[in-house]
Design brief:
The complex is a heterodimer of chains A (231) and B (253). By secondary structure, chain A is an all-alpha fold. Chain A is built from 10 helices and no strands. Helices cover 78% and strands 0% of the residues of chain A. In chain B, 54% of the residues are buried. Classes of the chains: A mainly alpha (231), B mainly alpha (253). At the A-B interface, α2, α3, α5, α6 and α7 of A face α2, α3, α5, α6 and α8 of B.
Chain lengths: 231, 253
C-alpha cells in the first residue's frame, strides 16, 4: 500500500511538473512533505523538502532544454528515506537521509532521459492528431493532447517506488551492518546541506550573489546556533 | 462575432494543459490547438472552416507556459477578425510567430529564473524556521500571483491584440527579475544557515563548519563549472572523510 501511494503521488506530481498547471506542487519543497504524509511521516518529508529544493532550485525547463527530473528524484529520496527510517525505527535521521540520497538521487538524471524519450514519443501523438484532423475528427485529434499526460505519469509511477524500495532495503541493511558509519554519514549530510544551499544561491546567477549568500548564510547559521532554537 | 466570456474562461482553463503533449517537432502545437478549440468552435459554425482554423494552430509553437496565455488570448482576438472577414487567415499565425520568442524570453527570465526559485527558497527557509504553515503560505502566495498574471496576460491579449506587448512591457518584469534574483540569493543563504544550524544541532561546532565548507566550497566549485550531482556526491564524501579524520584525532562531530 505504501508503494502504491508513493507511486500515485510521484505520478501526479510528474504530470503537474510540466503537462498541467505548474503550480510548484511538484517542486521538492512541496512534494517531499506530501510524499512523507502519504507514507505516514510528515516530519520526515519536512526534513527532506528544503535541502532537496535548494539542491534542485536551478532545475528549470528553459526553452527546449531538459533539466534533471527533480520531482522524480525528490519522490524517490523521500520515499526511500521514510521507509528506511521506519524499518530502522529511527525516522529520517541525517545518516538515513544521506545514504538514501547517495543511492537514489541519480534517478533525477535518468528521469531527464525518460523525459527526452517521452518528447520523442509525443511526436507520434502530434502526427496522429494531424491525421485525425484530416479525417474529419477534430475532437479525437485534440484528445491526443491529454493522452500526452499518461507517459510522464506512468514513468514516475513505476520508477519512484522502485528506487524507494531499493533504498528501503539497502539503507537499513547497510546501517545495521556498519553502525559506525552513522556519524560520518551525518557529517556528510551536513556538508551536503551546505552544498545544497550553495546550489540554490548559484541558481539565481545574481550580481554579487556570493556576497549576498555568504553573509546571509553566516549570520543566520550563527544566530540560529546561538539561539539554540533547535536544541 | 465575439467569443462569450464563458468560452474564454474555458480556453483559459485549457491553457493550463498547454504542455501536456510537448513534442520535439511541433513543441506546444497540440496544446495550443487544444486550448483555443472552444473559441474556434464558437467562431466557425462551418466544420470545414473550423478544421482549417485548427490546422493553422497545429503549426510549431513554443513559449513560456505562463506568458503563452497572452498569445492564446491574442490569437482569439485575431480569429474573431478572421471569422468576420476583417483580416486574412494568416494574421493569427503571424501574431503567434512574432510574439512567441520575446514572450518566452520574458517568461523564462522572470518566472523560471526569478519568481519560482525565489518562492522555492522562501518556502525552504519558511519551512525550516516555522514549519509547514510557512510552506503553505509560500505556495498560496506564489500561485495567487502566477495565476493572476496568467489571467491578466490572457485577458490583455484578447482585448488588446498586438498591443499586449506594451502591457507586458509596462510590468517591467526584467527589472523585477533582477531584484528577485538578488533576494533569492539572500533567501538561499538564510535557508542554508538554518539548515546547517538545524542539521548540526546538538553536535560540536565541527559539523556546522562542515556545512559552511560545503556551502562556500560548493558555491566556488559550481561557479567554476562543476556539475551538480557529482559535486553533491563529492560534498558527502568530503564531509564523511573529514568526520572520520576528526574522530581519529580525538574529537568527533
Amino acid at each position: 500500500m505504501d508503494y502504491l501511494l508513493l507511486a500515485l503521488v510521484a505520478g501526479l506530481a510528474a504530470v503537474e511538473r510540466k503537462g498541467f498547471l505548474q503550480a510548484m506542487l511538484s517542486r521538492p519543497v512541496a512534494l517531499a512533505p506530501v510524499a512523507g504524509l502519504a507514507l505516514g511521516d510528515l516530519h520526515g518529508g519536512l526534513v527532506l523538502g528544503p535541502p532537496l529544493e535548494l539542491l534542485w532550485l536551478g532545475a528549470v525547463n528553459l526553452g527546449a532544454a531538459l533539466p534533471p527530473h527533480e520531482t522524480l528524484g525528490a519522490a524517490a529520496v523521500t520515499g526511500g528515506a521514510v521507509l528506511a527510517g521506519r524499518a530502522l525505527g529511527t525516522g529520517v535521521t541525517p545518516a538515513v537521509a544521506c545514504l538514501t540520497l547517495a543511492l537514489v538521487a541519480a534517478l533525477a538524471v535518468l528521469g531527464r532521459r525518460t523525459d527526452s524519450l517521452i518528447e520523442e514519443w509525443n511526436v507520434r501523438l502530434a502526427a496522429r492528431a494531424e491525421a485525425l484532423l484530416e479525417e474529419g475528427s477534430p475532437r479525437a485529434a485534440l484528445r491526443a493532447n491529454l493522452r500526452g499526460l499518461l507517459l510522464p505519469f506512468a514513468a514516475s509511477f513505476a520508477l519512484a517506488p522502485l528506487a524507494a524500495a531499493v533504498a528501503a532495503f539497502a539503507v537499513p541493511a547497510a546501517l545495521h551492518r556498519f553502525p559506525g558509519a552513522r556519524p560520518p554519514l551525518a557529517a556528510g549530510w551536513a556538508a551536503l546541506c551546505g552544498f545544497a544551499a550553495a546550489a540554490g544561491a548559484r541558481a539565481f546567477r545574481a550580481q554579487r550573489g556570493f556576497g549576498l549568500f555568504a553573509v546571509s548564510f553566516a549570520l543566520c547559521a550563527v544566530a540560529a546556533r546561538l539561539a539554540g532554537v533547535w536544541r | 462575432m465575439r467569443v462569450p466570456r464563458s468560452t474564454l474562461r474555458r480556453v483559459f482553463w485549457r491553457c493550463l494543459f498547454l504542455q501536456a503533449a510537448w513534442n520535439r517537432r511541433g513543441m506546444q502545437n497540440l496544446g495550443f490547438a487544444y486550448a483555443i478549440d472552444p473559441a474556434l468552435r464558437r467562431l466557425y459554425a462551418d466544420p470545414a472552416r473550423r478544421r482549417e482554423a485548427l490546422r493553422r494552430h497545429l503549426g510549431t509553437f513554443n513559449c513560456h507556459p505562463y506568458t503563452a496565455a497572452a498569445i492564446v488570448g491574442g490569437a482569439i482576438h485575431h480569429e474573431e477578425r478572421v471569422a468576420a472577414g476583417e483580416e486574412p487567415e494568416s494574421a493569427p499565425l503571424e501574431y503567434k510567430q512574432i510574439l512567441q520568442g520575446p514572450l518566452a524570453a520574458v517568461g523564462d527570465s522572470f518566472f523560471w529564473a526569478g519568481l519560482r526559485p525565489f518562492f522555492g527558497a522562501l518556502a525552504a527557509a519558511g519551512t525550516l524556521a516555522l514549519g509547514w504553515p510557512a510552506l503553505v503560505v509560500a505556495l498560496v502566495l506564489y500561485n495567487a500571483l502566477q495565476m493572476w498574471l496568467r489571467w491578466s496576460f490572457f485577458r490583455a491579449g484578447y482585448r488588446m491584440g498586438d498591443a499586449v506587448v506594451e502591457r507586458v512591457a509596462s510590468l517591467s518584469l526584467p527589472r523585477w527579475a533582477g531584484r528577485l534574483r538578488s533576494g533569492g540569493a539572500v533567501l538561499a543563504g538564510i535557508a542554508g544557515g538554518l539548515l546547517g544550524a538545524r542539521t548540526t544541532a546538538g553536535t560540536a561546532g565541527f559539523a556546522l563548519a562542515l556545512a559552511a565548507a560545503g556551502a562556500f566550497g560548493g558555491f566556488f566549485a559550481l561557479s567554476r563549472g562543476a556539475r551538480l550531482l557529482p559535486s553533491a556526491y563529492g560534498a558527502i564524501a568530503l564531509g564523511a572523510v573529514a568526520a572520520l579524520a576528526f574522530s581519529r584525532l580525538g574529537g568527533g562531530p
